[in-house]
Amino acid sequence: MTSTLTPLSPTDRTSLRRVRERAESDRAALHNVLTTGLMCHFGVVVDGSPLVFPTVYGFDPDGPDRDGTLYLHGSVAARSLLAAPDTSICVTVTLIDGLVLARSAFHHSMNYRSAMIVGTPRIVTDADERDRALTIIVNHVVPDRADTLRAHTRKELAATRVLALPLHEASVKARSGDVNDEPEDIRPGAWAGVLPVQMTFGTPQTNADCEPGTPAPNDVLAIADRPRG
């Protein structure tokens, strides 16, 4: 079964309870959020306490897990990565597209796209998959970046743990459009509207220890000064 054939929110714990009309059912919506986002929040119970960690990620819609694979990585000593394979975890990615500014505080909101993936991850032990996963994570942040870097050292690989989470159990919720004010609040002179939000990159800042005149590489220039998503 390919990932595009499985609708989103396939289980009870990923089904929306409130404002269900904002739920997306097409798995392409999940891929869109994951492609556009840079950082996820990874929630896991460690020693009986729920903890949430921000981290970078990468994903492969055709990965080896059911409906594709989300990859996370970190230190082999990280408590979050040690605890994760023994329990269910939750990963979220949220994109803010606009501030929805109403005439009342109650109807203020945001236009957004938010993805949630739930499941039990596995530790990636196959060397080829681990290398591929680390490449996916690097290239997710800056496309084609991995091609310009030296190979990982044995010491670096020994210090790094990679987790793979199936993309099967996932949901996406989104809001777009105008303010939804109460009819009695719509009156002459009272403004309401949406303030768009975009994530952009600035001009690359060359490191001080680079040889003078060393230009930024094409992979970096390709995303500089452009909005993402």
Short description:
By secondary structure, the protein is an alpha+beta fold.
What does this structure look like?
This protein has 229 residues and is an alpha+beta fold. Helices cover 17% and strands 33% of the residues. It has helices at 27-36, 79-83, 127-141, 154-158, 218-221; strands at 23-24, 39-46, 49-60, 69-75, 89-101, 109-119, 122-123, 160-166, 170-175, 193-196, 199-200, 227-228. Strands 1, 2, 3, 4, 5, 6, 7, 8, 9 and 10 form a 10-stranded antiparallel β-sheet that branches. The longest helix is centred in the middle third of the chain and has 15 residues, at 127-141. It is globular. The two termini are 28 Å apart.
Query: Radius of gyration, rounded?
Result: 21 Å
Strand content bin: 25-35%
Oligomer type: single chain
Number of helices: 5
Number of strands: 12
Q: Which segments are poorly predicted (pLDDT under 50) over 5 or more consecutive residues?
A: none
Tell me the helix content.
10-25%
Distance between the termini: 28 Å
**Average predicted local confidence, pLDDT:** 93
Shape: globular
Task: State the order of secondary-structure elements, H for helix, E for strand.
Answer: EHEEEHEEEHHEEEEHE
Class based on secondary structure composition and strand pairing: alpha+beta
- Biggest sheet overview: 10 strands, antiparallel
